[in-house]
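Memo to structure team: turn this sequence into structure tokens by end of day. - J.P.
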Amino acid sequence: MSHAYADLSPDRVLAAIDAKGFVTDGHLLALNSYENRVFQVGLEDGGFLVAKFYRPARWSDEAILEEHRFSLALAADEIPVVAPLPDAQGRTLHHHDGFRYALFPRQGGRYPNLDDPDNLEWLGRFLGRIHRLGAAAEFVHRPATDVQTLGREPACRLLDSPLLPGAYRDRYRALTGQLIDKCQAAFDTVRPRTLRLHGDCHPSNVLWTDGGPHFVDMDDCRTGPAVQDLWMLMSGDRADMTWQLDALLTGYRTFCDFDVRELALIEPLRALRQIHYGSWLAHRWDDPAFPQAFPWFGSAAYWEEQLSGFAEQLHRLDEAPLQLFG
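Reply from structure team:
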């Protein structure tokens, strides 16, 4: 069966980059990415580029260009976001042999140490600056972080998928239905202000150097509540998440106000991410990279663990939101 990247051979990748005026040296390293295909490419002058080939039919050109404009605006404001490189005509989205791609500078770095409150405060300052700029305009072509796009639609897709075994279908329908209802009630109560976000701000999308953090992979930038870019940087038990949140917001509030009512959306957003993740795996299962990387998906053990996680999350949704110190 043909799949989205069946025709993306190494020769095509190198030819696409050569077509933009770079002279490649033949070295090509596939980086860790599943939704798109991302490569580190060696150049004849000894340098490197990163090339991202967008998954066909996922985003419109207009949606990708909104991502690029947002990234470039952040970089112009000296916020450390790895933005695409414009060509001589100022274009950032390129086409080659039916594929769309963008080129980026290579940015090294290490996984962030989020046990250090100073690092969290540092990240919070940059997120405050991202959101201050994000609130200055709106996305037109990119989706929202809401119950419909991250909950209802993914759950419906998975219920229609043969990868959800019949033995688990009724439990899945019941648990996701309850989660979605509770998430919608939380959003209806808070009615958060929405703004342009990174959208997928988990620790793997932060690269740390001696000069501080860099944010990478703006591919999932969306409109949504500010807390969406904060909660994935927190982990552990309630006490741990409380001090982490306090450190993040200490930095964040230097540049941007934060509505504490949004703390009631942390667990709903976690629930929506859980629902979306399984549906995403099923939706991409025809891409051979997915069965290879996620061989456990669809097994009885997977579904038992997934549904148990849904049930636990239902209880978390009934708990009081996190509270800030003081």
